[in-house]
Structures are given as structure tokens and as C-alpha cells.
Amino acid sequence: MPEWFIPFLLSVVTASTPFVFAGIGELVVEKSGVLNLGVEGMMIVGAVSAFAVGVTTGSGALAVLTGAFAGAAMALIFGVLTLYLLSNQVATGLALTLFGLGLSALMGHGMVGKTFAGLPHLEFPLLEQIPVIGPLIGTLLLGHDVLVYFSVVLMIAVGWFLNKSRAGMVLRAVGENHNAAHSIGYPVNLVRLLAVLFGGAMAGLGGAYLSLVHTPLWVENMTAGRGWIALALVVFASWRPARVFVGAYLFGGLTIMQLHAQGLGIEIPPQVLAMAPYLATILVLVIISRDSALIRLNAPACLGKSFHATG
Amino acid sequence: MLLRLENRGEISRAMVYASPFIAVVLTLIAGVFLFAILGVNPVDAILSFFVTPISTLDGFAELFVKGTPLVLIGVGLSFGFQANVWNIGAEGQLTVGALAGGGLALLFFESESLFLLPAMVIAGTLGGMAWAAIPAFLKTRYNTNEILTSLMLVYVALLLLSYLIHGPWKDPEGQNFPESRLFPDAGILPVMIETTRMHAGWLFALAAVATGWILIARHIIGFQIRVTGMAPMAASFAGFKEKKIIWITLLMSGGAAGLAGMIEVSGPIQQIVPNISPGYGFTAIIVAFLGRLHPVGVLFAGLLMALTYLGGENAQIEMNLPNAVTGVFQGMLLFFLLAADVLIKYRVKFGGAKTSSTAAAGEAG
Q1: What single-letter DSSP state applies at residue B267?
Q2: pLDDT for A235-264, tens place per residue?
Q3: Is residue A84, in this structure, part of any structural domain at all?
Q4: 176-235 in A: which are within 8 Å (CB) of B?
Q5: Any idea what the CATH number is for the domain that residue A245 is in?
Q6: Residue A197: which domain range?
Q7: Contact B312/B325 with Cβ under 8 angstroms?
Q8: With bands split at pLDDT 50, 70 and 90, how would you rate the model's confidence at A228?
Q9: What is the pTM assigned to this prediction?
Q10: In Å, what is the CA distance from A233 to each residue of A14, B100, B148, B151?
Q11: Mutate which of B86, B155, B355 to test chain A, going by most A C-beta atoms within 10 A?
Q12: Domain spans, chain B
């Protein structure tokens, strides 16, 4: 086993985790029938808020919570506009992204150049002494920061919530047919608002992971389209949490691979290699979308439609 | 908090036009708070942002320099948005247009031909069209969401620009900076007002407004686009081809963005640099909405948004405010606009009960 192998896999985990958070968050939002295109904006505001708090307080926990909270605060703007003021979801999502990019640049004005120590990792020094499997188990399985484990828990919990819990059924009912859900007596817009807030918190968490662990520093526009890729992942995964998780790791792997390819001296210009994740996103969208029956079957039927109770 | 939205039953024409003004006023009020939070005198900041930049001839001319790409792209996008075709990758189409048009100027860098500039205009437009043709093809052929594909192609285009400028297109006589050669004089748009930077590109913006107006008001295509957006079923019963609308709207907006990109490199920049546009392609989305998806509205909205760019630059110099304030202002403006737009279809009623006798009570914004 080459010595770069374990660091390589570790960096894949780090690169993939933001996609998991943002993707699973958006999945819940879309299941409730709302299309929030502002993932990128919520993510980057989460990233800058978490980083600012992390650098000033030194507390990783506080930083992570701030990131999630900031994402949810952004989502609240979107929720109020689309659910209660019935604005167009596509336009409002775009507005959220544009606003978030500007706001984050403003907030991060004094943060450029600072670094954060990163989140604490679990460590098992004795275990790592065991030859061959020691480093594998010690580092690769048990040696991550707590958010990586949380992302796995999140994937399982959201899967259970949507398919097995009563509240999850209500959420899906609202997303499939809001008129029927309303006439049974479910509070359509409240359910959607909660889903939107959850999605915002997860996008913020993904952003926080990016600025606290992945880089870990603040650069303007550092999300670099990851929020949009997370949106594509939800389609790619046919709205299933486990598949979002797999997709996130595919894209995380691709991101890291193009970085390593540069390191290995492959004769392709770095800019061309850097196009890979974006081109791959287009490619998977084409493959998934060409079967329109499949999309219709899996997409929430009321996705993107506003609900206004009359009478 | 007993506010209720009641369907007006028909669209309020008055609110369609009032809503942008409400949004601007609300943005200014929010701006006062924003500046107070940033610790600067709000009155000074607002003056520095919105008045000082255009108080000189140079500054006023600059309004049209920045307004040119915004109006051009905004007009193009407004067609697609009316038909629910969401091209949000104009920034990428702008970049490819700049590369196609500017590439021609670099290829013929010793040219003195009068044909160079027209050829660059055509190349830039075609470049933007070609880039927009990708999402159009994927949407019509494979049903792929054009929002995501057009946006992904922005990153690809920016990386392409970065590759060219760090590699084959780097100025061979330069000092290893990532910049191209300067364009030959024959490839530079003439200045319209002496001593300022205002160039002939503005005429293209005006031409786009005029063409757009004719298309939307007089031409069958404009009608088909509007019907497709408002009533897709009716459009298909009437035999309008949805795929044709997708192709036309994407090619029009892509071509306009490509032309805008070519104008940027040929007018104010005069060479190819790593940062061609400060996000014009994205800001133009706001311009299109603020201009009510109508070419004439887009004209004024584009100039207003150009002012926010100038204001940001000026406030950075005068008051040491971060340039990012511009983006915050632009985002807030779109939020307030979308919120105010609720009043087009609904009226606000006070009181939870269904008392319809006091209908006029809650009409105010």
C-alpha cells in the first residue's frame, strides 16, 4: 500500500462531507415540495460565520453551531418570501445565492489570511501501532472529526425519518399533494418552513465544515459551486438519502483526484483538471434526466409550486 | 399580526410598476441600517454610494460603461425568464464571448482592417450562443435542468479563460503576468464622449432594447414566449413548439451575453485579463426582474444596478468600505422586489376574519 493512500482517502472524506450535509438538507427541503436554489448562498454564509466565530473564540463547537444557525437564518428569509409572500421559488433561491455571496464577502472582509486550527480528531495511538490494519482502522475508520460521524448519522436518520416516521410521512404528503394535505388538516406552510430551516442549517453546516476543516481558512467565493453541485446530487440520487451520500463521496473523490493528478505530474493543465467536477455534474444530470419517467416517478409532485390556502 | 393575503382576482398593473420603486426605497432604508452596523455615518455613506459617483462627467459616463453589459444581458435573459427558461449561466456565456471576440483581436494583432471590429462582434455573439447552446441541447434532447447545466458551465468557462491567459494567450512580450497582448487599435471600440471611457458599446445596448421591444410587442415569437411562460398548456394546444422556445430564448440570451463579453474586452479593458466581469452575468438576473422582464424597464434597471457598482467602488475609496457592499445591496434589492411583487396578485388585509367590506384598508405597501 503506497504511503499516500491513507492521506488520500482521508482527504476524500473531508472533501465529501460538505456535499453530504448540503445535499441531505436540500433533499428534505425538496421532499416537502420546495425548491431552494439558494444552497450556495446559505453554505457560504455558514462558512464565513463559522470561521469568524472559530477564529475569535477558538471553540470548534461554537463555530459549527454558528454555521448551522447562520444557514438557517438565511433559509428563513427564503421561507418567508416563498411560503408566506408567495414569491417565485427559482427567483428567490437565486436571490439568496447572490445575497449570500455578497454578504459573506462583507462579513469575511477582515478574515482573509487567518487560519483555524481545525476540529479535534479522535485518536487511538495504541491501535495505530498494529501493522497494516492498525493505521487503516485507527485512522480511516475511527480517526475522523466528530462531524464526519454526524454526517453518517444524518444520512441514516433522515432516511428513517422520511420513510418510517409519522412526521416524515406528513412532510412527504405535503410535498406530493399540498391541496390534499391541507384538506386533511396538515399545516402545509409550517411543515415546509421547518423543512426549509433544516435545509438551511445543513447547508450552513456544510459550509462550516468547508471553512473549518477542509481548507481551513476563509477565501471569498470559497464554496466555488459546491452548493449547486449539492443540488445536482439530489436529482442524481433520485431523492434518496443513501444515494446522496454515495454521490457526495463520488464527487468528493473526483475533487481530490484532480488535485492529486496535478501532484503526480500528469501533463494536463491544472485548469482543465479543475473542470472535472463541473463537467461530471453535467454528465450525471444528463444520464439521470434522460429518463423523464424516472424523474417524474421520484420527484415530489408539488416541487417548486407555491401553496396559498383560499377561504 | 393578523395579516391576510387576498387574491385580487386579476393582476394589478399599477403594482407591476410600483413594486420596483417600493423595492428601491426599502433597499435604501435597509442600507441605512447596514451602514450604521458597519459603523459609518449612513447619510455620508448613501451620498458616497449613490450621488458622488455620478456627480462628474467622467462618473456619469462610467454609468453607461457599466450599464452596457447589464442592459444587454438583462434584455436577453428577460425573454427566457418569461418563458420559464432559466439561463443563469450568462456569466459563462459572457466569458466565452469575450474569448471568441478577443481571440480574434489577438489572432490579428497587427491588423488595421476596418473589418476586424465587426468580425469580433460576430465572433463574440456566436461564442456566447455556442456556450448557451449546450444547455439548450441538453434540455431539449435529454430533459436536463438548464439551471444547473448553465451554471456549471460558468465555472468551466472561467477555468478556460484562466487556462488560456496563463498559457497560450499570455502576452509573449509581457512580464509573465497572466494577461494577453493589448488589442490592436482596429479591435477597440471607439470612445463616444472625449475624455471619458464611454464607448460605442452602449449603442449595442440601446439596439438590444429596441429589438427586444419590437420582438415582445410586435413579433409572433414574443407572443409565443409569453404564452409559454404564462400558460404552457395553452401554448402547446396552440401548437407552439416548446423546444423551439427553449432554443430561441437560450440562444438569444447567450448571444447577448457573448456580445457583452466581447464589448467588455474591446471597450474598457482592451486586452484579455483574468477577471473580465465583476459578476455582470449574475447581476443581470436582478436587472431583468427589476426591469419587469421588459426591455425598456431593463434599460433603467441596468443603469441603476450600474450605479451600485460605481457606488461600491467609490465608497471603498472614500470611506474605506469593503467593495462587497455592492453585492449585499444587489441581493437586498432583489429580495425586496420579490416581496413587493406579492402585491401584484394579492392585496394585504388586516384582521383574520373574512370581512370584505373594508377592502381598501390594507392596500398600502
Answers
A1: I
A2: 889 899 999 999 999 999 988 888 777 667
A3: yes
A4: 220, 224-225, 228-229, 231-232, 235
A5: 1.10.3470
A6: 5-121+131-298
A7: yes
A8: very high
A9: 0.90
A10: 17, 32, 11, 14
A11: B155
A12: 64-304
